[in-house]
């Protein structure tokens, strides 16, 4: 889902107590705010003003219309004046999409020498928004609250984050995930309750045997493969033993055939994410590592070994980060470098890391894999660029989904890796490796993550609120005693919540 295909509705709360002229003034101010926000250049999604609502019937009508409009990804509400909150009850009960409560006012400052009761009655967001805030809290409706003057870049930045998350949430509600093969045998953390995931997160997970993909591979001609290989030659450096005329060039061509087939399969099925499994490659020449790398860069979610939850989250992160620098990728924790305060984790996978995060032009190479029992696979080799980012995962805790997020600093490799021909990233988890890794383990986190340079903890907090799932964040302020206490308190909360239902 692209940002230009979405819109956010702006609804202003008012009432007729102060007369029609007051409502006209409210409407004029609201139009100016929406126009100013749209022209700010800070927001990724267009805001559409839907007028003032002055009664329960008007609130319900706009909420129902938003639910039924596929282009509307959320509503921003603002109480310019006093809007009695009981008139919002029925509309909020029906409303199913993201909600942002903008707590602002039309004027930036108090007009000290001019202010009178007429001004006070008309400009009372400090009053009206509290009435609205109460009813939303009483109804236990999740929403984001942004406080501040609407022209401030900081305020617009918070709105922009929520917009990106709202689009990603809308994208997830019809997300079909294709699993080529099943979950890797006996692995627990990558599996989970697919029924609950569809109810809670929108994901729909379908299994297809690898033979169905192999059948699609046979549809592509040598001409199709040649065209894609020519694209590879323009975009990547080729290792000497992979160029035309070498023994490994045929493996590059087979990788291209696999990419063509997976793209076609996903498009025909209307899927946005997929998983592979090196134990399920019957009829294929090699593990489709190059295809997975390139598909991720184009926005498809990917998870290895059947990890559908991470595949979905990689897609969601990519949607949120559209147009922002840095890149998004699937990654896996591999091995530690214990170095005191700069201890780090080497992130990689067998092959599948997105070239979106590369620090240099990727190099296309072919090497033995040593797992899966197939021919030597092609892959893009590179190291991730320096920068701060966030790694996150969603795990099934039995009675709920838990989202775990860790701020990380990606650093340059401390030395070359001449015998490890895969894409990789070296990062230091916040606040340090010992605390970050221990907290991740206490939380039950996966060895797979969705990673993004572009996103911050604000994005994952907004997403967890929309999904109404647990979130624990590991950052600069984390200490193990406080983190363990948070986990224990969360456990009590969710047990009691289940009991009360």
In words, what does this structure look like?
- The chain has about 500 residues and is an alpha/beta fold.
- It contains 15 helices and 19 strands.
- The chain has helices at about 20-40, 55-70, 90-95, 115-120, 125-140, 155-170, 195-200, 210-215, 220-235, 250-270, 290-295, 310-320, 435-445, 455-465, 480-500, and strands spanning about 5-15, 45-55, 70-80, 100-105, 145, 175-180, 205-210, 235-240, 275, 300-305, 330-335, 345-350, 365, 380, 385-395, 400-410, 425-430, 450, 470-475.
- The strands form 4 sheets. Strands 11-12-17-16-15-18 form a 6-stranded antiparallel beta barrel. It has a 5-stranded parallel beta sheet with strand order 2-1-3-4-5, with helices on both faces. Strands 7-6-9-10 form a 4-stranded parallel beta sheet, sandwiched between helices.
- The longest helix is centred in the middle third of the chain and has 21 residues, at about 250-270.
- It is elongated.
- The protein starts with 6 loop residues before the first strand and ends with a helix.
- The relative contact order is 0.10.
- The model has no long low-confidence stretch (mean pLDDT about 95).
